[in-house]
Design brief:
292 residues, alpha+beta, 17-stranded mixed beta sheet
Amino acid sequence: MSSDRLMAETFRNLTFWKMTGSGNDFVFFDGRQIDASLLTLPEVIMAICNRHNGIGADGIVILQPIEGYSGQIGRESSQARIHYFNSDGTPADLCGNATLCSTTMSIALGIADANGMGLETPSGRISGRVIDGQPEIELQTVTTVIADMEITRGDGEERIGFAVAGIPHLVVLCKNADSVDLDSRGSLLRHHAATGPKGANVNWVSPMNNGAWRYRTFERGVEAETLACGTGAVATAILLSSWGLASSPIKILTSSRRELVVGLACSGDTWRPTLRGEGRVVFRGTIGDLGL
């Protein structure tokens, strides 16, 4: 049997879950069912995430229970490890919506309890729970916040700030987020030298009449607009608060028209954010032929 055929057979009948966090969608796998290293191959990830020839997603998540967990809930214990990969096959240290979805999935798989859990990510430990039927997570503290970046503003752009909320984000205050040409402007700012060698996600935000904020995200690793970005919502809320334009809790409307709620506590230059939003299982299935 050829290596390609062997690879295809490895994944045949493997169970997956399709999940969405405000339109930011993912394919989830139970790390107990397969060698996780096979799922981290870029060609496999791209085949799974392909929206025409695969399952279709912004990224994949492998949830692995942490050995030695005894069922005791505590702030310092972690029940699961999240491995997240963008649709282009690149790993990411953190994805807010994927972590909200991981909170839901950890409960469904019997890995953790709805009253409280610890989730390990490359960016650090995240606490999660379910409140009023929605997952909520406590992210790592945010200390890198720059209220104004030395970046030339485009038409309708009023301020550009920067924050590292697990991953780096530019936040652009503008008159109307819905009118921004994300394809051209997003690609330009995403690679801006001021954001560092790996670039950053870029978020445009504008006020709504009801006190909430509308935002849109150009996401690195996807290299296009995603319908929502959890860490982008956190970075956006921090910059809005830094600019004196909003106070916690801050409601942010995504491009899927679903709402993310960011809670903020600040002490000096340290921000402690929470994020609440959707983490919904859309369907469960088994892989047939990925076409590898």
